[in-house]
Design goal:
Helix content is about 25%, strand content about 25%. With about 260 residues, it is α/β, with parallel strands linked by helices. The protein folds into two domains: about 100 residues, Histidine kinase-like ATPase, C-terminal domain (Heat Shock Protein 90); about 130 residues, Response regulator (Rossmann fold, 3-Layer(aba) Sandwich), CATH 3.40.50.
């Protein structure tokens, strides 16, 4: 909405029925759902753009202003939850996005204020690389709360520079797979070439099937969103492996480096 406008967010309970005609592009399973509707009075989309909005890396924004991953990630999360997402838009008439997630009748468990007793504590230095400021700050806090020393970076280039200036031995690189500039794969490849002891954990909001095409087999991977306990266990798993073989997530899936943790 470049000239301003109205943004409306609505939630409600909904009941869907099986129909091939009423709901576009999906064979709907009848049942009770929770709906989230987001509508605007913006410029809208033509038919060609609307058909590609969930396609990974498709964007109408200029270079450096968008990656084309936001709606693709939204779509993946909704489908994993057995839900549906439908978009209605016309040029000059704004856009309406409707999301339906199956409603469940399950009592919530009491919130756990304390960390799980099974969650491991750790030590050592970790370099998390994340271009989203809020996620980078959250990961920093989660890792520090587990006893790790954390040196964060907002991009691949910054991570390389920080690693070169760091006096501590960085034991683990945690990198998002898809970032502006250097991708997680390219960053891991360069870092391992300079620091043969380094281990790598890749994270992404994409599903395993989608992201596996961007990583070599055997690369440690954690899918977003994740809990603090799951992150802690995955980090300890990466750092605690002895006599491990780390596959470089590079262009050649057969290229590997091995080391023994001391």
């Amino acid at each position: 909405m470049p000239n301003g406008g109205k943004l409306v967010i609505e939630t409600q309970n909904a009941k869907l029925e099986e129909s091939h005609n009423r709901y576009p592009n999906d064979d709907v399973k009848s049942g009770n759902y929770v709906s989230l509707t987001v509508s605007d009075t913006g410029i809208g989309m033509n038919k060609e753009t609307r058909a590609r909005i969930f396609e990974p890396f498709f964007t109408t924004k200029g270079k450096g202003k968008g990656t084309g991953l936001g709606l693709a990630t939204v779509y993946g999360i909704i489908k994993q939850s057995s839900g549906y997402v439908w978009v209605y838009s016309e040029v000059g008439e704004g856009t309406v996005v409707k999301i339906y997630i199956p409603r469940v009748q399950v009592a919530l468990s009491p919130a756990q204020d304390e960390e799980s007793a099974d969650s491991p504590a750790g030590s050592g230095t970790i370099l998390p690389v994340e271009d989203e400021d809020s996620l980078r700050e959250l990961n920093h806090k989660l890792l520090e709360s587990r006893g790790y020393s954390v040196i964060e970076a907002a991009s691949g280039d910054e991570a390389i520079r920080i690693a070169g200036q760091c006096r501590e031995r960085i034991g683990l690189l945690i990198t998002d797979v898809v970032m502006p500039g250097l991708t997680g794969r390219e960053l891991a490849e360069r870092m391992i070439a300079s620091y043969s002891h380094l281990k790598v954990l890749c994270v992404s909001g994409y599903t395993d099937d989608t992201i596996s095409q961007r990583l070599a087999p055997g690369t440690a991977f954690l899918q977003k969103p994740f809990t603090r306990d799951l992150l802690a266990k995955k980090v300890q798993e990466c750092l605690g492996a002895c006599d491990a073989t780390q596959t470089i997530p590079g262009r050649d899936s057969h290229e590997t480096r091995s080391w023994t943790r001391r």
